[in-house]
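Summary for the steering committee. The consortium agreed at its last meeting that each partner would contribute one worked example illustrating the joint modelling workflow. Our contribution is presented below. We chose a case with several input lines so that the handling of multiple components could be demonstrated. No manual editing was applied between input and output; the record is shown as generated.
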Amino acid sequence: MKLRIVPLGDSTLLVQFGDEIDMKINQRVHALANLLSNLSINGIFETVPAYATLLVHYDPLILSFTQMKNHLRAQISKMEETESRKPRRVEVPVRYGGELGPDLEFVASHCGLRVEDVIRIHSRQIYTIFMMGFTPGFPYMGKLDDVLVTPRLETPRTRVPAGTVAMAGSQTGIYPIDSPGGWQLIGWTHLKLFDPASESPFLFSPGDEVKFVVEK
Amino acid sequence: MSLEVIEVSGLATIQDSGRTGWRRFGVPCSGPMDAFAFRAANALAGNTPNDAVIEIGWGDITFRALHDCVIAVAGVGYALSVYIWDFPLWSSYYVRAGWTIRLNKLNSGMWAYLAISGGIQTQPMLGSRSTYLRGHFGGLDGRQLQVGDMLKSKTPSRALNELSARALGTEVQLAYSDDPIVDVIMGPQEKYFTEESISVFMSHEYSVSITSDRMGYRLEGAALTHRRKTELISEGMTMGAIQIPSDGQPIVMMADCPTTGGYPKIGTIASADLPLFAQCVPNKNRIRFRKTTVTKAQKKYRALMNGLNEGIVEAD
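What follows is the complete predicted structure of the assembly.
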């Protein structure tokens, strides 16, 4: 797909790099987000990276859509020439199964695997945070090994505790705050993903890499 | 200077211009439902455009002033009384210590903003004083105001008598209406809908559903038909975006909306018209949508905001 820059209203615009969940496309999204945040351009408030798009919030009192579009086109062609920076990697200790991972056995039987295999396969891979959303600090990570792909719950739970490690489809994530949730719950981490009163309130940033470490 | 909440039946929260800089982590912007009335209240009170104010909707609120102060009230759907007098909105007033300030809900309009000269002081969270109710942070302990709450403000930049008795000139007022025509910038997923569907959306009247809140307004009226799939991979979204879920009934994203979403968006309400839409009363006001371009919408927004900055006059 050819890159497109389209308006979402009069104070945000969407840079569309593609229309599928793909590592290469997602890397370009984060590369542009990083570039714009380093430039700190007067009139650009912030950006929201997603799987294949970057949303840019800007001030139409300072920049028009056409000015924004031209400016972004120039930055994107510069970006293609520079090498993308190495992502940060965060290790996350996980206690798999038990009360806080009540769906681990269902996942194992759905995939035709032993519980130990699900833990081994889920924790051996390095995941990329494609985007954050849903609740403050929720990381959408992928991709899961194909053998682990499991549908989400038919009926979402009304309350999933903060720190619960979960998976759905080809993605995995961690619930940062107590919230409703429809993903399969497979474990729990003691790490705090979101603390609004802290100097650095979020454990992760979009684009980071995550490695789960089995905690006995 | 401070105000004490002595009665409240409505949804009252502290809001500043919003929490920017954290949306990429999934933190909604929050801020005012009606950004024009919010800006007007701060301007009339001699505050900066980002100062925190009280937003009130759905019901009434009464305060007692504990010190002499200047307040400014802007919005739609409220009657203001200070001590023994009824006063119009879109003006600033000198309030003496001990006086009560009442904001009573009327039948038309939804939201009003009460600014105190100097701006309300609370502990900022993630750089903002805006209340995010679902996240339980910002404002006063992340919750709505309740009886007994004390709202403190800084000392104003100017003498109180220089800030009181000011009004917003009628020529720069926004033309609020019970049955507004609201401009929409089309896209990015216009092509997901049949042409008939789009012309239905543009030619029929819609009303706001009673299940609406600070996160989103559901629309009631003709449903839209998706041309193909009803979902897309999640992407960023913003206040005013009109999402169409699989049942075809549009939902307009409002101040506390999620930062990303996976339903196609037929278009986004123009910033200059978003206040008109936000002030629509559920099951009552009739809304019509009209196509505009991003360039026209930006011109209209600039004219509106520049007018506001120049439109503060001494009251008659």
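Residues 294-310 of chain B form the longest helix (17 residues). Chain B has two domains: 2-168, 181-310.
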